[in-house]
Write a structure and sequence with these properties.
Elements: H1 3-14, E1 19-20, H2 23-29, H3 35-41, E2 53-55, H4 60-72, E3 77-80, E4 97-100, E5 107-111, E6 116-120, H5 125-133, E7 137-138, H6 151-156, H7 164-167, E8 174-181, E9 186-189, E10 213-221, E11 223-224, E12 231-238, H8 240-252, E13 259-263, H9 265-270, E14 280-287, H10 291-307, E15 311-312, H11 316-324, H12 328-331, H13 337-340, E16 342-352, H14 353-370, E17 374-381, E18 388-398, H15 402-422, H16 441-445, H17 449-459
Parallel strand pairs: 2-4, 3-4
Antiparallel strand pairs: 1-2, 5-6, 6-10, 7-11, 8-9, 8-10, 12-14, 12-15, 13-14, 13-17, 16-18, 17-18
Helix pairs in contact: 3-15, 14-15
The protein binds flavin-adenine dinucleotide (FAD).
Length: 473
């Protein structure tokens, strides 16, 4: 079926006003923030596959009707909400359809007694937070993309926020949800604090990246919001290994700061303008909860940092980070990578404490040896667990032509993926697989990869949803 026929049929099914065929809107709606596309865009040519149209359903019934039709007619479908994906997750298949959930943006109910809020998938996280803050509540979910992301996308990518060491990732925050399978069936998972009536079905959708279902609604936990009760502190420390050991001790001793960040020497210089003494890493901490708990957490952290020879630098660096932590969102479209002649991006992995330092060092050693045009590489840890932590690498490389952008980008990713997998780490801590990490997914999951294939077959038998994401086919 050609693009015109697809759009026409969907107009008949959903109504004229639900279907967008304007070329500029389609190109905008296909856009992803992965680094090599940011470069290619400067060239003015379209480097992405072109979708037939975008549909903007306004109810779960419309999503269901659309997906049933797309499956029946074997037309590819790519779900989208905020469009802040950095993994080619929202890039369409040539001639496919983008299902944009952003018109489903209602806050359905707030239940302060049971401490939960129910929202539609297209609810912007920033709006939800502002709404909750009015009654002294918060979701506790603060990804850097807070000004861009919407609830459906946050669930679909298994996102995590900057305060995750205390509140957890989105998987810890979802109480129940509603989704539509590729075949059009609507499923609801009810809101209970916990249950042991079989496996946790929420996890079939949290992290599905639109590969077999479209999330239409979610009920999230809410927490008391009291920024006045916070404790904040920062420290300069010699060496990433030393910093990682200090972080490990904080976590294994049972302290639970909301924010615990360790930036390497390069980030201390570049992003924090040499705020710490030369050659030092920078560590930022913020504790939340009732004031005595936050203060006790601060004292616990102080004692451990002193043991590791860290220099205390007070709350100011944390206050500065807190104010500016999401500024990049407003600048994303202003970076002119093409004319700068460089690609730049980030890539996040995670591993147990015993392996994470080795992965960091191996990547920092291999990249300058193997990528002659490497312009920058640095890393920080920002999401901590009793068992380990993540490293969020930032990299840049000189690129002279758009044809070089993707190969140059993927050569760097390959090194990060290989060094992580070699040591038993995970290739994606919170951005998801998207399309660019799919090649490493079989190795990531080993013998359990077959489960992903079976779920895909069962929920999306026509194989129309987000082809190339999570799974090779
Ligand atoms: C500057 C910047 C900073 C970022 N910081 C963070 C961070 O701190 N933490 C973090 O976790 N991520 C971060 N990200 C990545 C991104 O914001 C997250 O992946 C976010 O969860 C995507 O939400 P979205 O609504 O924009 O989803 P989209 O970009 O629209 O979609 C993301 C994926 O989910 C699928 N999807 C979207 N909606 C649905 C739905 N309703 N049902 C099923 N599948 C769906 C899409 O097909 C796609 O695969 C950042 C991105 C940028 C650009």
């Amino acid at each position: 079926m050609d693009s015109k026929d697809i759009a026409q049929a969907l107009k008949g099914l959903l109504g004229e006003d639900r279907v967008v065929t304007d070329e500029a809107a389609i190109s905008d709606g296909s856009r992803d923030y992965i680094g090599f596309r940011q470069y290619e865009r400067g060239d003015g040519k379209c480097w992405m596959p072109k979708a037939a149209c975008i549909i903007r359903p306004q109810s779960v019934q419309e999503v269901s009707a659309a997906l049933a039709w797309l499956s029946e007619n074997k037309v590819d479908a790519v779900p989208r909400c905020g469009g802040s994906s950095v993994t080619q997750g929202v890039e369409p298949v040539e001639g496919g359809v983008i299902i944009d959930g952003s018109a489903m943006n209602q806050i359905i109910s707030l239940n302060e007694n049971d401490m939960m809020v129910t929202v539609q998938c297209g609810t912007p996280l920033e709006q939800l937070e502002a709404f909750l803050n009015k009654s002294g509540k918060t979701t506790g979910h603060f990804p850097q993309s807070l000004p861009m992301a919407q609830v459906g996308g946050l669930l679909a990518t298994r996102s995590t926020g900057q305060f995750s060491t205390y509140y957890g990732g989105i998987e810890d925050m979802v109480i129940g949800l509603e989704a539509v399978l590729a075949t059009g069936e609507i499923v609801r998972i009810k809101n209970v604090p916990r249950r042991s009536a079989g496996p946790d079905l929420r996890h079939l959708f949290i992290g599905c990246e639109g590969s077999w279902g479209f999330i239409t609604e979610a009920t999230l936990k809410i927490f008391k919001y009291d920024p006045e009760s916070r404790w904040m502190g920062s420290f300069a420390i010699k060496g990433m290994k030393n910093g990682l050991q200090a972080l490990r001790e904080i976590m294994t001793e049972g302290w639970k700061p909301a924010v615990a960040r360790l930036h390497d020497e390069r980030e201390m210089e570049r992003d924090f303008h040499n705020i710490a003494p030369e050659g030092h890493c920078l560590m930022l901490f913020l504790a939340e909860g009732p004031k005595p708990v936050a203060d006790a957490t601060g004292e616990g952290i102080r004692a451990i940092m002193a043991k590791h020879g860290a220099i205390e630098m007070g709350p100011k660096p944390v206050q500065h980070w807190l104010v500016h932590r999401n500024d990049v969102c407003g600048r994303l479209d202003k970076f002119d990578y093409y004319n700068m002649g460089a690609i730049a991006d980030t890539c996040e992995i995670a591993a147990p404490w015993s392996q994470i330092g080795e992965i960091y060092e191996a990547v920092l050693q291999r990249l300058p040896e193997e990528i002659p045009l490497l312009a920058a590489i640095s890393g920080h840890s920002s999401h901590n667990y009793v068992q380990g932590t993540n490293i969020y690498f930032s990299f840049g490389s000189i690129v002279m032509h758009p044809e070089q952008a993707q190969p140059a980008y993927m050569a760097i990713i390959k090194v990060i993926m290989e060094e992580t997998l070699k040591r038993g780490g995970t290739i994606a801590h919170h951005h998801g697989s998207g399309k660019y990490r799919t090649a490493w997914m079989p190795e990531e999951h080993g013998s359990s990869y077959i489960l992903l294939e079976k779920i895909k077959e069962a929920f999306d038998p026509a194989g129309v949803m987000n082809k190339g994401v999570l799974l090779k086919k």
